Amino acid sequence: MFYTDGLLMLWRTVLLPLTFMLSLMAPCLHAAEKPYSTGRFLDIQQKTRDKVDMYLVNTPVTTAVPYFEISIEFGNTDYVAEYTPRHSAEQLPEAWRSGESVQGRLDKHHIYLRRSDGSELSFIITKRTPVSKETVKEKP
What is the DSSP track for 94-123? Predict the structure, then answer.
């Protein structure tokens, strides 16, 4: 008798609320990622921008911070995106060159490009340009 009362109390106080909370969280945990599509690099450039480190007598002391700017075509849209490496010696994969195809997925503000090892590199989209069908036909 005491054994069944304890299980009933455990069910009511712990397991029932826990089951209810997990059922509410299930849709959040089952978020679908967008599928990968094939894009083509149009241009890849390594650039620098100046970062102000400090001011000495109203004169800015700056450091050059490298970043990569890519132009890539996905479907009927050309994207310009930027990636800031973790350190100045970091490079993009060697297989990524102008004219080469790449697997990637698009988000509202990011492009995630798949590397050859399966990991992703996140680029921030700075510009979107729709490409008309006449322009696509003119390209060789």
Answer: TT--TT-EEEEEE-SSEEEEEPTTS-EEEE
Burial status of residue 28 (CB atoms within 10 A of its CB: 0-12, 13-18, 19 or more): exposed
User: What is the Cα–Cα distance from 48 to 64, expressed in whole angstroms?
Assistant: 6
pLDDT in tens, 67-123: 999 999 998 999 999 999 998 888 988 889 999 999 999 988 999 999 989 899 999
In angstroms, rounded to a whole number, what is the distance separating the alpha carbons of residues 136 and 50?
37
CA-to-CA distance for 60 and 54, rounded, in angstroms?
A: 6
Query: What is the SS3 assignment for 140?
Result: coil
Please say whether the dihedral angle defined by the alpha carbons of residues 21, 24, 28 and 29, taken in this order, is positive or negative: positive
Q: What residues are paired with 63 via a beta bridge?
A: 51
